[in-house]
Amino acid sequence: MTTRPAAVQRWEVARPRTLVDHAVEAILAAAAKGLILPGDRLAEPDLSMHLGISRVPIREALRILESQGVVTSEPYKGIRLMEVSAERLQQVIDVRIALETLACRRIIEHERNGKVGAMALRGAIEEMELMRQRSDTYGFAVADTAFHRVLCDLAGNPVLSKVWESIARQLTVIIGLSTIAKPMDSIIEEHRALLRVLRSGDIAATEREIDRHIRVQHVDTDYERIIAERRAELAAPAHWSRRS
Question: Where are the alpha helices (DSSP H) in the chain?
């Protein structure tokens, strides 16, 4: 009898959403949509005004996002959205390729690339397709991140999953920004291609595909231009994510 991977079996436990949860998601969504941009200062009074909640949950949300690398805090500079520089992207790419290559290898070695594993990955792709239809940038970025989360979970290595999770929300922001310049359809097709190769069971081909997938999505995207153009569009006194 074949045992399903724990990552596929697991039910998500329902939890009440708190104001902190709401603030975390709202800030992430704004960053993924390019409403706040890398390097922008995040002031608690501004966030409180735009989210309609007190500064206490916002402060806690910012602490959570700082622990996950989404925002940074420096003396005299305040809290800012993470930078998306060429150097930073290369660091994230290096970590992702190492983790996700290992995940793919373990999936194939343990024969978790069959029908059940593929079904879980297709579910994330279907969610991406739905978000594309809705033109929901944040929802698309979350679904893209979820695909790679499932990929890592299927490896059956909790340590690998935990390390990958430490950069997951940074990925959501980066992926969201990439959709400003890159069609969602092409991103979806890249995920379909990766799933096809993974299903084939060819470890070497899968490793090449995961490397290509991650590098193409990020290296071939001119984030500096995207950010500069988006900043020009948002340059107005009323814009809530101001720079100092």
Answer: 6-9, 19-32, 44-51, 55-67, 86-109, 115-133, 137-154, 158-165, 168-178, 184-200, 203-219, 223-234
- Residue ranges per structural domain of the chain: 19-83+226-234, 86-222
Tokens 């995940």, residue located: 103
Tokens representing residue 142 in the block: 């979350």
pLDDT above 50 for 4: no
CA trace torsion 12, 176, 101, 212 (10° rounding):
150
pLDDT in tens, 175-196: 999 998 889 999 999 999 999 9
Residue 133 burial class via C-beta count within 10 angstroms: exposed 0-12, middle 13-18, buried 19 and up = exposed
Q: Which CATH architecture has domain 19-83+226-234?
A: Orthogonal Bundle (1.10)
What mean pLDDT is reported for the chain?
Answer: 89
pLDDT for 73: 92
What is the distance between the alpha carbons of residues 83 and 93, in angstroms, rounded to a whole number? 15
Q: What is the pLDDT of residues 126-138, one digit of tens each?
A: 999 999 999 999 9
Q: What is the CA radius of gyration of the chain?
A: 19
Distance of alpha carbon 1 from alpha carbon 174, whole angstroms = 41
> What's the CATH superfamily of 86-222?
GntR ligand-binding domain-like (1.20.120.530)
- Alpha-carbon distance 80 to 70, whole Å? 9
How many other C-beta atoms lie within 10 A of the C-beta of residue 66? 14
